[in-house]
Write a structure and sequence with these properties.
Blueprint lengths: L4 E6 L5 H17 L5 E5 L7 H6 L5 E5 L6 H11 L5 E3 L7 H12 L8 E5 L7 H16 L3 E5 L7 H7 L4 E5 L5 H10 L20 H16 L1
Parallel strand pairs: 1-2, 1-3, 3-4, 5-6, 5-7
Length: 228
């Protein structure tokens, strides 16, 4: 029996480098799962949209949100399109997860000394379900690195990044975003002279690329839903 298809759904971006990085992640997942029909879709900006992509797949589908927390896109958009397809299942988003803490720690190792405090910059959401996910990710990074890790939001919530950096003037900014785009540009502006890590999937700098931990995480989300 054929394994379920994997529909990897990200937010979508108009940033060419960000879009390329997401595509590279999906391609790596497809390489890891050669017997699975792996497809990409988006909830905004890019095509195909998630609903159209799901409708084009015959048979069972595991929808993996390439999103870092619970929120509107997961619960409204993705569960909304899956409700009418009995053989579709939506997994948890990618975060929070220890594998993301591993990837963030690797990024931090390239831009700052091991004892620098960290401000974890997350996109932010008005959806209350996103808050424990952001706090959980900060706790995981704190445990992984042994550093002071403060949380800051780029939109919707407080503290914002400038406020958090005022409270930690020697901090490095850890970018908790998948790829380049609007929020990374905003984080870079707010960071000013503070060191800032590239997004999790950024491959524009030497020795940076698609972290194995991110590929492992998407595969694990798919496997957990398929086996469950």
């Amino acid at each position: 029996m054929a394994r379920p298809a994997l529909l990897a759904v990200s937010h979508g971006t108009s940033d060419a480098d960000g879009a390329r990085s997401i595509a590279a992640l999906v391609a790596r997942v497809a390489e890891r799962l050669p017997d699975v029909d792996v497809r990409a879709a988006f909830v905004d900006v890019q095509q195909p949209d998630a609903a159209s992509a799901l409708a084009a797949i015959d048979g069972p589908v595991v929808i993996v949100p390439l999103l870092l927390s619970q929120g509107f896109h997961v619960h409204h958009d993705l569960h909304g399109i899956a409700v009418d397809k009995a053989d579709a299942v939506v997994t948890d988003p990618l975060g929070p997860d220890a594998l993301l803490a591993e990837a963030l720690a690797e990024r931090l190792g390239g831009v700052a000394s091991p004892d620098s405090p960290v401000v974890l910059a997350v996109a932010g959401s008005r959806d209350e379900r996103s808050v424990p996910d952001a706090e959980g990710m900060a706790a995981l990074l704190r445990a992984r690195t042994g550093r002071r890790v403060d949380l800051a939001y780029l939109a919707a919530r407080h503290p914002d990044l400038p406020t958090a950096l005022t409270a930690a003037p020697d901090a490095v900014v850890a970018t908790y975003l998948l790829a380049r785009g609007f929020f990374f540009d905003l984080a870079a502006r707010h960071a000013g002279a503070h060191p800032i890590t590239p997004p999790l999937l950024d491959d524009l700098l030497p020795d940076q690329g698609i972290p194995d931990a991110l590929v492992d995480l998407v595969v694990a989300r798919y496997a957990g839903a398929h086996q469950g």
